[in-house]
UniProtKB/TrEMBL annotation:
Residues 3-455 form the Aldehyde dehydrogenase domain. Keywords: NADP, Oxidoreductase. The keyword NADP applies. This is NADP-dependent succinic semialdehyde dehydrogenase. Belongs to the aldehyde dehydrogenase family. GO terms for molecular function: aldehyde dehydrogenase [NAD(P)+] activity; succinate-semialdehyde dehydrogenase (NAD+) activity.
């Protein structure tokens, strides 16, 4: 894939960028190494001041950043603004909390170890490679970069090739806040060159958000180099609706969750498992609401759903729907890509999906929802867990016993009760099974890329 800004709403290539040469990549890694020597000796107060200043820059430029994101990957302006502001908020969260998150503990009764004292401490490890996707070009990076830099590490970003302007914006953002030169560096390189960077001894660890094959590849390289990785590899999140739920709220949230970011989020609800007592009413209301959304120019404030980010993404999504329809599934709304420019695909609802269809098992990365009729909570859990993924989930019920049974029974990194799956800096984020390993955000996220040292004193 060329390193270029191709507007998804028009299909027009707006800017192209030359990949960094091997010499340029080498120099950028050297910059990260040099910056680490400074960062590791700086104080939490130093880094917090720089991080807050960088957050101020991002917040002040939120409108400019939003238009860049909309142009590069097609999300609506409202959601692009929200992404920029959420990123700034998370930067401040780590500025405020990093020191307490990385305070070691004093060991009680050290005499049991023949010591006068013992304690633990967390220390930064060095340059960390981040391989990031296009769906949240700023947020995905910030949720790694903010804790990594506050811990005293430096970052190297290999961003998706269709969001180079976002990558270059992030390349300078932290230095504009006061971080030492080289603290965060973007590498404009194709995916084929990631392995060489990962095997570079100056790079000590990596994090990746992306496809399962990409994650397996990076993890394999990291394993052979004995380097730590954090992987977030997507999901096919269940959204369970039981008879006691507030159906109006469930339907409204289902629409928002399935179409947020034009349906291109790892934690979008994708499979809707609805109890038979409310199934017909849910499908009718959900179909109506999805069909009523406005699809169009993402720079128009009245647009609900913009284009998919890539032509191949639309082809893949349409292929899933066409496969299901050809095998007997029913499309209650949408299901046909419109004619004309841009990579648009309408909000789509599919019922009658079974295990013979690709849509049953594969992640639909776009505004396509599958709805299943279930007889009870046990059947809902069976279908919900019948997937290789386990990122997030949502349950809608006002029965306390049922809620507890569903929370305990779901194999997922998170469960949201009577609400929409979303990431918060206060909550750890990550999945089980093929959805990845490790956690981002909260205290767990900042502790992924530090070394825990034990100290014993005679």
């Amino acid at each position: 894939m060329a390193i270029a800004t191709i507007n998804p709403a028009t299909g027009v290539t707006e800017r192209e960028f030359e990949a960094h040469t091997e010499a340029e990549v080498d120099a950028r890694i050297d910059e990260a190494v040099d910056a680490f020597r400074t960062l590791r000796s700086s104080t939490f107060a130093d880094r917090a001041g720089w991080m807050r200043a960088a957050a101020d820059v991002l917040e002040a430029e939120a409108e400019e950043v939003a238009r860049m994101l909309t142009t590069e990957m097609g999300k609506t302006l409202a959601q692009a603004r929200a992404e920029a502001l959420k990123s700034a908020k998370t930067m401040r969260f780590y500025a405020d909390n990093a020191e307490s998150f990385l305070t070691g503990r004093t060991i009680e009764e050290p005499e049991r170890m023949n010591a006068s004292g013992a304690y633990t401490r967390y220390e930064p490890i060095g340059p960390v490679l981040a391989v990031m996707p296009w769906n949240y070009p700023i947020w995905q990076v910030i949720r790694f970069a903010a804790p990594a830099l506050m811990a005293g590490n430096t970052g190297l970003l290999k961003h998706a090739s269709n969001v180079p302007q976002a990558a270059l914006y992030l390349d300078t953002l932290f230095e504009r806040g006061g971080f030492p030169t080289g603290s965060f560096r973007a590498l404009l390189i194709p995916a084929a060159r990631v392995e060489k960077v990962m095997r570079d001894r100056r790079v000590v660890a990596a994090t990746l958000t992306g496809s399962e094959p990409a994650g397996r590849s990076l993890a394999s390289i990291a394993g052979s180099e004995v380097k730590h990785v954090v992987l977030e590899l997507g999901g096919s999140d269940p959204f369970i609706v039981m008879p006691s739920a507030d159906l109006d709220a469930a339907v409204a949230t289902a629409v928002s969750s399935r179409t947020s970011n034009n349906g291109q989020a790892c934690i979008n609800a994708k499979r809707f498992l609805v109890h038979g007592d409310v199934y017909d009413a849910f499908v009718e209301r959900f179909t109506s609401a999805m069909g009523a959304l406005t699809v169009g120019d993402p720079t128009d404030e009245s647009t609900d759903v913009g284009p998919l980010a890539t032509a191949s993404g639309r082809e893949d999504l349409a292929g899933l729907v066409d496969d299901a329809r050809s095998k007997g599934a029913t499309v209650t709304t949408g299901g046909e890509a419109p004619e004309g420019a841009g990579w648009f695909y309408p909000p789509t609802v599919v019922t009658g999906v079974d295990t013979s269809m690709r849509l049953y098992a594969e992640e639909a990365f776009g505004p396509v929802a599958t709805v299943f009729r279930v007889a009870d909570a046990e059947e809902a859990l069976k279908i919900a867990n019948d997937t290789t993924f386990g990122l997030s989930s949502a349950v809608w019920t006002n029965d306390a016993d049922e809620e507890e049974r569903l929370i305990a029974g779901l194999t997922a990194g998170a469960v949201f009760v009577n609400g929409m799956s979303i990431s918060y800096p206060e909550l750890p984020f990550g999945g089980t099974k093929d959805s990845g390993i490790g956690r981002e955000l909260s205290i767990e996220g900042i502790r992924e890329f530090v070394s825990l040292k034990s100290v014993w004193r005679a």
